[in-house]
Amino acid sequence: xxxxxxxxxxxxxxxxxxxxxxxxxxxxxxxxxxxxxxxxxxxxxxxxxxxxxxxxxxxxxxxxxxxxxxxxxxxxxxxxxxxxxxxxxxxxxxxxxxxxxxxxxxxxxxxxxxxxxxxxxxxxxxxxxxxxxxxxxxxxxxxxxxxxxxxxxxxxxxxxxxxxxxxxxxxxxxxxxxxxxxxxxxxxxxxxxxxxxxxxxxxxxxxxxxxxxxxxxxxxxxxxxxxxxxxxxxxxxxxxxxxxxxxxxxxxxxxxxxxxxxxxxxxxxxxxxxxxxxxxxxxxxxxxxxxxxxxxxxxxxxxxxxxxxxxxxxxxxxxxxxxxxxxxxxxxxxxxxxxxxxxxxxxxxxxxxxxxxxxxxxxxxxxxxxxxxxxxxxxxxxxxxxxxxxxxxxxxxxxxxxxxxxxxxxxxxxxxxxxxxxxxxxxxxxxxxxxxxxxxxxxxxxxxxxxxxxxxxxxxxxxxxxxxxxxxxxxxxxxxxxxxxxxxxxxxxxxxxxxxxxxxxxxxxxxxxxxxxxxxxxxxxxxxxxxxxxxxxxxxxxxxxxxxxxxxxxxxxxxxxxxxxxxxxxxxxxxxxxxxxxxxxxxxxxxxxxxxxxxxxxxxxxxxxxxxxxxxxxxxxxxxxxxxxxxxxxxxxxxxxxxxxxxxxxxxxxxxxxxxxxxxxxxxxxxxxxxxxxxxxxxxxxxxxxxxxxxxxxxxxxxxxxxxxxxxxxxxxxxxxxxxxxxxxxxxxxxxxxxxxxxxxxxxxxxxxxxx
Length: 756
Known about the structure:
Structural class: alpha/beta
Distance between the termini: 42 Å
Number of domains: 3
CATH class of the largest domain: Alpha Beta
CATH superfamily of the largest domain: Phosphoenolpyruvate-binding domains
Strand order of the largest sheet: 7-14-13-9-10-11-12-8
Largest sheet: 8 strands, mixed
CATH architecture of the largest domain: Alpha-Beta Barrel
Radius of gyration: 30 Å
Helix content: 40-55%
Strand content: 5-15%
Number of helices: 27
CATH topology of the largest domain: TIM Barrel
């Protein structure tokens, strides 16, 4: 059964749209289970009715016509209970309802299972049989497994089908894809799809600008691959027996005009660009081989994929020689966007980002917030390869992507864009005013930076210092480790730009979701592995070069603070401080008179929360990294879109940990700041004020919103609110209470409900 299941899933995966997918499902499931009827009912998103959408064994004329209300009939019962219903004699069940015209009168045995994707009931999968019998446990288990496997595919096919319909005739309906809020804001623009190098499954679909040029490029790539294969064939001629060596001739034959090469050429002549045509043909053949029963033939799918990947690599090399163009309102779309992909788009043209993978606290999302670019992450159902040059709308406040929005919906989003611009203009008057509550409590607002481009934006927004300078960003943008002198120059620019304001530089924090291309770290569980201070303590040559560069850059300025990431015990802090002190002594001995800067600990793992006082006793300051602290406290991978809805910044456990760290710092007389994304949330800032944090550090785009909020309340009211929310047991209750406070304060513009 496992092999049958795998084959069905592969075949459905290859479907062009929802109708194709459903027709494949009902046919293959009926055949696999040896039953007489298999049907699928899909829930209509607008009416909620369960619509008869595909069948093998019942009346096909009723497809799209017959339907049941929620809870109506046995199908409605399956959907409402969200569990299987297995009946020997369906007519005898009190919920049974005969749908006229379906032709199911003669079928008595009934087994229906819900199709559920991300807690949403998409529909019901049903098998029926004339003989009165209860389907056995193995049959029920198979159908449940099939439904669970296919739920994501069906959800994806539903959206893909809407996009395909719109591409064909412009009459496709609107589609809404739920993701995760990555960076706030609304963006309306043109999709530009970026794909990883030589990935057949990630090639965007688009029309050829010049068919002859595309055909020439394809033939040149074929010729290059043929030459490569012939060269390898010659090199291995004496190493292989004749039978195995003959396989190279088979590879060459696959690329002929009479085989796959000819199919690709025909698609190009019909108007597809070369990469898209190649991808479509190769994937079709790969899936054909994967479904074959014979293991030897099935393994040939690997060879076909290898050939396609080789040709694609040459096509991409040729395409990269041409200058990339980006429309004025570019929405960058990809399976997994990277910092380098962001950097390739001129900033003035980058309107928004959509990433199929990742979450609101992944590294790219953090960079997007720093740049003020509306972003949706974890849009797993997005048919991203089909969006090239399509207009899309991003709701970065609620993590929603709208495709083919109705004119009135698009107009409402444009109104929101205009409102956001108006709010930003109104907030500019606060730039030079202090962040001070109505009862006179002063709370400095600092910024998180990583790029020189952040400096001007931060100062323009009235930043009073830097609470987190991400030193890994310059490392990420290079093809090797930067030298000590190169680092000194980079750090000097930052320190000079903000002087005399303090600048907190975090030592290299790689691992987890931040990998250097020239220093790869491959682990099964990277967030619990070799990352942050663990890497740099294991490589003191990297750590010493960095801290020496920082200390040298501070000469004559005196505004440097060093922050140590991922500290989980006292030993790590003591070892790091010894290395920093050693680097400082060496610099002084070399003749540079510069003071030892304050050294702080980043509190971002649970052990650091429980040892906060001991850490504060040895360090000069504490700084909470709320992103990772929340991740580790809640055991939620912040890059995993499947569990991202469990990542609650206002979780009572997180709030309690934040209170404990602030109290530990006060007990030791050491300042405590917070530099996670929570600090830039106007709602959270009210609680952090009450907890006693000395500094809030955030992305520059959040500064004025936080300042506006804190200048609209008293610290006394914030403390009363904190007492109230610390008694609550659900994060949703905390959020609702904070939203009510903001609304009562007249700041409704900071609350963004999703549009339909």
